[in-house]
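FIELD: query
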Amino acid sequence: MAKAPVAGRSKTRLCPPCTPAEAARLAEAALADTLSAVHAVASAGNGVRAVLALEGEPGWWLPRGFSVAAQRGRSLDERLANAWDDVGGPGFQIGMDTPQVTPALLEAALGALDSTGTGAVIGLAPDGGWWGVGLRRPDRRAFLGIPMSTPATGGAQLDRLRRLGLAVAMLAELRDVDRIEDALAVAAEAPASRFAAAVASLALPALQSALPC
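FIELD: result
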């Protein structure tokens, strides 16, 4: 689930210290890293299908073999619900905010979802959100009405899954990239990533202003 990186519309909470163009460059690198991890899983001959629910137009960052579904809906909860309607399931959904994700983490999510008795999986983020949700069967009710992009989103999402009667498996927590301190931490966690290279390319004053004294 992603939107095409566009200056002034992508990762705006990185500004300042980033310029809109720098924020879009970080968003582009994060998306490329995330899609590469998904592509590695889908290319392993295990029957996994890679689908990108996209707002905007595809770019160089989209690997071959992906299907693309245009996002539908006004609010994010509607777009999530519609994406599941369009793509089907079982499946695991991830955004573009965790470029440190690895194929092993994604395979673990799919494995947990495939476990007997498990109806859903969720990976929470330390800021109160979530980085990934998996469902054995698509259900619009899993997302509609959930307050998005708040410190309570992850807890509300977990509660909704349980209220639907689903046995939920918890995944490893991952930090998503919203602010410059997140970008620096994630780049340090995945130093060989495109995202880390993009962070390193930022103008030095931007980095200096973000670091603690």
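FIELD: remark
Residues 180 and 210 are 7 Å apart (CA to CA).
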